[in-house]
Amino acid sequence: MDPIMHKAHAADLVNAARIRAGLTWAGLAAAIGAAPVWTTAALLGQHPMTAAQAGVVVEMLGLGDDVAESLQQQPNRGSDPAVMSDPTIYRLMEAMSVYGPALKALIHEEFGDGIMSAINFKADVTRRADPDGDRVVITLDGKFLDYRW
């Protein structure tokens, strides 16, 4: 019996097939009826998909049941150090390093002692036109969870 394909390998196959097929992450998300950010994260190995979702994706991309099986597995969430050095990801981490303490203070001031959940969470990326160059708008939408004893 062969082992289940590692999620990183499945992600590489999905991305290559997506590019070669001329499909977008948003198009794949629409096909499975899920949000683009969640779908992209799932296809890159950060969330498990349902059998139905995985089936639609592998059919669209011409991939096998081994990829569908991998897409349904629970992930080890997070990123490896090599990914963290990517300029876009690094700049996002830099923004959190600079503005994270201020955001934390404002969350505590507005909501009290607690955190924004990354489990009960939604995210979105949009483009906003600006005369000085288009702007990237990232919305992080997490449920507030108060600390309780």
Automatic annotation (TrEMBL):
E.C. number(s) listed in UniProt: 4.2.1.104
Cite the active-site annotation: R91, E94, S117
Q: Which residues form the Cyanate lyase C-terminal domain?
A: 78-149
> Can you state which reaction this protein catalyses?
cyanate + hydrogencarbonate + 3 H(+) = NH4(+) + 2 CO2
> What Pfam family is a match, any one?
Cyanate_lyase
- Molecular function as annotated in GO: cyanate hydratase activity; DNA binding
Q: What class of enzyme is it?
A: lyase
In terms of SUPFAM superfamilies, this protein maps to: Cyanase C-terminal domain (SSF55234), lambda repressor-like DNA-binding domains (SSF47413)
Any idea which UniProt keywords this protein has? Lyase
Among NCBIfam families, the record links this protein to: cynS, PRK02866.1
Role played: Catalyzes the reaction of cyanate with bicarbonate to produce ammonia and carbon dioxide.
Q: Which family does it belong to?
A: Belongs to the cyanase family.
Q: Under which name does UniProt file this protein?
A: Cyanate hydratase
Source organism per UniProt = Citricoccus muralis
Please name the gene that encodes this protein. cynS
